[in-house]
Design a protein that fits this description.
It contains six helices and seven strands. The chain is α/β, with parallel strands linked by helices and 192 residues long. It has a seven-stranded mixed sheet with strand order 1-2-3-4-5-6-7, with helices on both faces.
Length: 192
Amino acid sequence: MQFAFVADDSDELLQKLETWGAFAPPRLERRGRQKELERFCLRLLLLHQCQNGLLSFPVKVEESENPDFVLTSDGSSTGIEVVEASDPREQAEWTAHEKRGLGFGEPIVREIDLMDPDRMAKFGALVEKAILSKAKKCSSGVDELLIYANTDWDDFEDLEWKTSALSGCNQIGRRFSKIWILSGGDVFTVSS
């Protein structure tokens, strides 16, 4: 495990998070930079927890591989594994689209079918797949999952829609004490 930082109170945590994990590498530059993306995701979770009084202080953050992070507070440790929920075909399409757009200085615009009647089911299936995959692979040191939704299926949807789409995930994720979801600007849990 590698030490990342300790924060004695919420003010110190917010100060540390101004720089730690503040940026995710661009899509075409992510190879070999997975830990930066994981830090970015954990930063969003820590900000949410701090702003909602869900953290005890002092809190120590350590980096490792399985789990990706260990948070220690009040004498207990919580292992957090970061995982992406995505469709490989969608990802390949986005990457190809961005590669074609390089050098033109034009914004990259993707088409999203907001009227697709299967959007909710597709979003739920991607998250379920991520949970099942990690439940099989991760070590016993993983207590919580932090899933970042890297898909268009949840774009422009509110928190109620997202939680409804994931209502069945609490049963398949019972191996974890908590499952956190990062979706657009939302951070929420799927209770297990």
